[in-house]
Design goal:
Layout: H1 2-28, H2 31-35, H3 43-53, H4 55-85, H5 97-125, H6 127-133, H7 135-147, H8 150-165, H9 180-193, H10 196-214, H11 220-223, E1 225-226, E2 232-234, H12 239-249, E3 253-257, E4 264-269, E5 288-291, H13 296-305, E6 310-314, E7 320-325, H14 326-334, E8 348-352, E9 355-359, H15 364-371, H16 384-392, E10 401-403, E11 407-414, E12 419-426
Parallel strand pairs: 2-3, 5-6
Antiparallel strand pairs: 1-7, 3-4, 6-7, 8-9, 9-12, 10-11, 11-12
Helix pairs in contact: 1-4, 1-5, 1-6, 3-7, 4-5, 4-8, 5-6, 9-10
Length: 430
């Protein structure tokens, strides 16, 4: 009898761990990876596909199984504890409160550790692997409880209570469709499996896919042409001055302002020089005004709908922070596109021995991913120049060094208004 009790308790703990783990694995699993089994003719593939179809029935199956097991565990574990610690009360129905308390505490501690904490931790870490490994037995139990009508009855009761008693609608509450994070994790998993040769051949496609996933989170300030690099002209200027600016810059579009750059009134396209116009005002094209924090996908949609090509980015005080074109936004998806604005590519040079020469306009996250520098990133800045300004809190002079625990930044070129070129020296930390 004692041996049978041991077996029942151990089996109950194992099954409780199984049901608890499978519940958390279902919630934590990468939906993209699991969806790959749809259309798979294997038994495991069909089982996973069926389990994904009804999340509510799956969760109900794990709950029913776990609760049945817990009842069995509680009965036999309680009797076992009494026989081991308080044999004088074995076989009696009336137990002192202190005995019940000890019995409850020990039973609860054992089931929490072995049936909840440990399995849920392991199954959360290896969610996909566990679901794939146990898919067939889980589906068999899923079908059995469905056939007996147990899960169907549970769902009917829960929906009745939610709809009629609480007046709530639970539609969509059990929706486990995959999202951007699932896609991102799946891509990372596949990249880790590729060797260096395969990875180099797919590098561009992978970057485009990752850029697409992050596209909705990119703000205007992250891909705009900064105010200091904008080519603009006062509306009072002559057409000859406009023509000279087009020739000297090689640009096809020039921003036009009234009195100062914070009062942009539009832009002029180089094609308009061939039209008969008496002044710049006759050639003006409208621009879109957007805040720095506006997502670029919304800017692109607005520009497309209004058939516009340039947006002027405004800071929190209403001043001009920069400008952004349709091409700038497309570059966030496809990478750099060579055009009139990119004749002088941003400087980036590996000098060896942990030294690098960069344009201050290089983005910090790009330098980290490209060169593995681990430069500090923050929402307060996007570029290397912004990083240095956050450290110095002023415009550093040419030749000035900025020392940090991991790097030494030397300003190689600078003007009164901005930093141009920076020498980055990585320290060898022992």
């Amino acid at each position: 009898m004692q041996y049978e009790t041991y077996v029942i308790i151990i089996v109950s703990l194992v099954l409780s761990a199984f049901f608890s783990g499978m519940e958390i694995a279902y919630v934590s699993a990468n939906r993209v990876r699991l969806s790959m089994y749809k259309g798979d003719g294997s038994l495991k593939g069909r089982a996973i596909s069926k389990l994904l179809e009804r999340p509510d029935k799956y969760i109900a199956t794990t709950l029913v199984g776990n609760n049945v097991v817990l009842v069995v565990y509680g009965y036999y574990m309680g009797a076992y504890i009494i026989s081991m610690i308080y044999p004088q009360y074995a076989g009696t129905d009336e137990l002192p409160f202190s005995v019940l308390l000890v019995q409850t505490l020990i039973s609860t501690a054992v089931i929490l550790v072995t049936g909840e904490f440990l399995p849920k931790t392991v199954f959360r870490i290896y969610a996909n692997e566990m679901l794939e490994f146990f898919a067939i037995p889980m589906y068999a139990l899923y079908r059995l409880l469905s056939f007996l009508g147990i899960t169907g009855f549970m769902l009917w009761v829960s929906k009745f209570l939610i709809y009629r008693v609480f007046g709530k609608d639970d539609r969509g509450a059990m929706n486990f469709s995959f999202g951007r994070l699932d896609l991102g994790y799946y891509i990372d998993e596949q990249v880790e499996k590729l060797d260096s040769e395969e990875l180099s051949g797919m590098d561009k496609e992978i970057n485009i896919f990752r850029n697409a996933l992050e596209f909705r989170d990119v703000k205007a300030r992250e891909c705009m042409v900064p105010r200091t690099d904008m080519q603009a002209l006062d509306i009072k200027s002559t057409i000859d001055e406009l023509r000279s600016l087009f020739v000297s810059t090689g640009l096809s579009k020039i921003i036009i302002y009234r009195d100062n750059i914070d009062n942009v009134v539009g832009y002029v396209h180089s094609f308009d020089l061939f039209k008969e116009a008496g002044s710049l005002k006759d050639m003006l094209m409208p621009v879109l005004f957007v805040p720095e924090t506006m997502p670029v996908n919304e800017i692109l949609n607005t520009l497309t709908k209004r058939r516009m090509s340039i947006a002027v980015v405004l800071d929190e005080y209403g001043g001009t922070s920069g400008m952004i074109t349709v091409e700038d936004i497309v570059e966030e998806l496809l990478g750099d596109i060579e055009d009139e604005h990119d004749k002088d590519s941003l400087l980036e040079k590996n000098l060896g021995d942990g030294s690098y020469l960069f344009s201050a306009r290089q983005e910090v996250d790009y330098l980290n991913s490209q060169y593995g520098l681990d430069l500090p990133e923050s929402d307060d800045y996007e570029t290397l120049g912004g990083l240095i300004l956050s450290l110095t809190e002023n415009i550093p002079e040419k030749g000035q060094e900025v020392d940090t625990p991991d790097f030494v930044f030397t300003v190689k070129e600078a003007s009164n208004a901005r930093i141009d070129t920076v020498l980055v020296k990585k320290k060898n930390r022992k």
